[in-house]
Amino acid sequence: MFRKFIDNKLLTYIARVVVGFVLIIASVPKIAEPSTFAKSIQAYQIVPGFLVNLFALSIPWLELVIGIFLIFGLLLRGSSLLSAVLFSAFSVLIAVSLFRGLSIDCGCFGLDGAPLSWSRFFENIGLLLLSLQIFYNSLMLRKCRL
Fold first, then answer.
1. Which residues contact 106 (CB under 8 A, 6 or more apart)?
2. Which residues contact 46 (CB under 8 A, 6 or more apart)?
3. Given 23, 55, 78, 97, which is the most exposed site by the fewest CB atoms within 10 A?
4. Which of 24, 88, 109, 92 is nearest to 62 (CA)?
5. Burial tier of 73 (Cβ tally within 10 Å: 0-12, 13-18, 19+)
6. Degrees to nearest 5, angle at CA 86 with 22 and 2
7. Which among 17, 12, 43 is positioned nearest to 133, based on CA atoms?
8. Cβ contact 131:23 at 8 Å
9. Whose CA is closest to 69, among 58, 82, 56?
10. Is the confidence at residue 119, as pLDDT, over 50?
11. What is the pLDDT of residues 121-130, one digit of tens each?
12. How confident is the model at residue 39, as a pLDDT?
């Protein structure tokens, strides 16, 4: 039964659209206001200061490109794998920060001002699972074509 669920092409399509739109919606305010996103990154107190601006400028564009690729079905193996890596990193970052007791804005959607919370952590885990489902199906699609 699990195999039938995970192999579901409709689920894969819905996952691509959901994850893609989340990434695009998250990227736009960060691209528009990179200094605000840089402050959010700095608040996590994990990224070295000299890398904050590089992360603030590159992560939103990466999110945007991955989101577009997922929605349009372009390079699905790579884009879904990168999406899974991003959501894994975001999940670890949120969990570590919560365990450290930081009370900061999560910076997830730019200027939304949402506080860091376990619900954000579980949202990222859900998006990670959807990304892995897309990745799995992109691998199965390749095997079927060979």
1. 40, 94, 114, 115, 116, 117, 120
2. 93, 96, 97
3. 78
4. 24
5. middle
6. 75
7. 12
8. no
9. 82
10. yes
11. 999 999 999 9
12. 92
- Whole-number average pLDDT of the chain: 90
With tokens 């919370």, the residue in question is: 117
User: How far is Cα 45 from Cα 132, in angstroms, rounded to an integer?
Assistant: 28
The tokens describing 108, both together, are 């997830």
Q: Identity (one letter) of the amino acid at 3? A: R
Helix (H, G, I), strand (E, B) or coil at 113: coil
User: Could you say which DSSP state residue 117 is in?
Assistant: -
Q: Which range of residues forms the domain containing residue 92?
A: 2-145
What CA–CA distance (Å, rounded) separates 47 from 23?
Answer: 21
Assess contact for 127 and 22: CB atoms under 8 A: yes
How many folded domains does the chain comprise? 1
Enter the tokens of residue 71.
Answer: 């929605």
Whether the CB-CB separation of 36 and 111 falls below 8 Å is answered with yes
Q: What's the CA dihedral at 126, 132, 137, 142 to 10 degrees?
A: 160
